[in-house]
């Protein structure tokens, strides 16, 4: 009995060490913020990003992970000629007040998220650099650069099945995906 308990404890320690190596990036629109399926012109209007509803279960998970000192980050694109950046920061202040601004990366729309993060880190992406995003091109570029992509299924996306990597639509599935990624290391 004692041996089984010890094995369980060692397994948990290993999981925590592996997960501490993870650097996770969450997209905002369509991931932690519920995307409204509107024409692009609508998403460029003042107030669009401020008014997005939160994906509450995912935000609760993200908040808990931040409190546990797991390296969680926001990685979101914005239109440079709109108020999107300001609105996204206000949205985060309202729905994720515990996140430090140093963990929030905002990428001008059209810039490759993988290249942007590699520039910020001064290194290539590795398998423990994880992007949780709803947009297949972002995930494909991320994986091509060496990171691990996790597709967040939000009810609007994922109908064509183009992304061949990990796909999740619930927090429990996301936790299982993180376990799977940690086990691959």
Mean pLDDT, rounded to whole units?
A: 87
In whole angstroms, the N-to-C terminal distance is 29 Å
Under CATH, the topology can be stated as Rossmann fold
How can the largest sheet be summarized? 6 strands, parallel
Query: What spatial form do the alpha-carbon principal axes imply?
Result: globular
Can you tell me the CATH class? Alpha Beta
The overall number of domains is 1
The CATH architecture term is 3-Layer(aba) Sandwich
Beta strands, count: 6
Number of helices: 7
Poorly predicted runs are 1-14
Could you name the CATH homologous superfamily?
HAD superfamily/HAD-like
Strand order of the largest sheet: 3-2-1-4-5-6
Provide the succession of SSEs: HEHHEHEHEHEEH
Sheet/helix structural class: alpha/beta
User: What portion of residues belong to β-strands?
Assistant: 15-25%
Explained architecture:
This protein is an alpha/beta fold. It has one domain (22-184): 3-Layer(aba) Sandwich (Rossmann fold), CATH 3.40.50.1000. Helices cover 43% and strands 16% of the residues. It is built from 7 helices and 6 strands. It has helices spanning 2-20, 40-43, 56-67, 84-95, 113-121, 136-144, 171-184; strands at residues 23-26, 71-78, 104-108, 129-133, 148-152, 166-168. It has a 6-stranded parallel sheet with strand order 3-2-1-4-5-6, sandwiched between helices. Strand 4 (129-133), helix 6 (136-144) and strand 5 form a beta-alpha-beta unit. Residues 1-14 have low confidence and may be disordered.
């Amino acid at each position: 009995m004692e041996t089984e308990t010890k094995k369980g404890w060692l397994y948990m320690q290993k999981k925590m060490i592996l997960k501490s190596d993870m650097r996770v990036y969450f997209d905002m629109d369509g991931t932690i913020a519920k995307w409204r399926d509107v024409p692009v012109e609508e998403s460029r209007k003042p107030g669009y990003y401020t008014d997005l509803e939160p994906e509450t279960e995912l935000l609760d998970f993200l908040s808990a992970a931040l409190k546990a000192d797991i390296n969680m980050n926001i990685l979101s694109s914005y239109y440079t000629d709109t108020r999107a950046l300001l609105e996204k920061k206000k949205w985060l202040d309202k729905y994720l007040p515990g996140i430090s601004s140093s963990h929030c990366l905002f990428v001008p729309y059209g810039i490759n998220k993988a290249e942007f993060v590699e520039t910020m880190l001064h290194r290539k992406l590795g398998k423990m650099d994880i992007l949780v995003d709803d947009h297949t091109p972002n995930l494909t570029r991320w994986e091509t650069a060496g990171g691990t992509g996790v597709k967040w299924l939000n009810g609007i996306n994922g109908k064509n099945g183009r992304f061949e990597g990990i796909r999740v639509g619930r927090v429990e599935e996301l936790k299982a995906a993180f376990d799977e990624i940690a086990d691959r290391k």
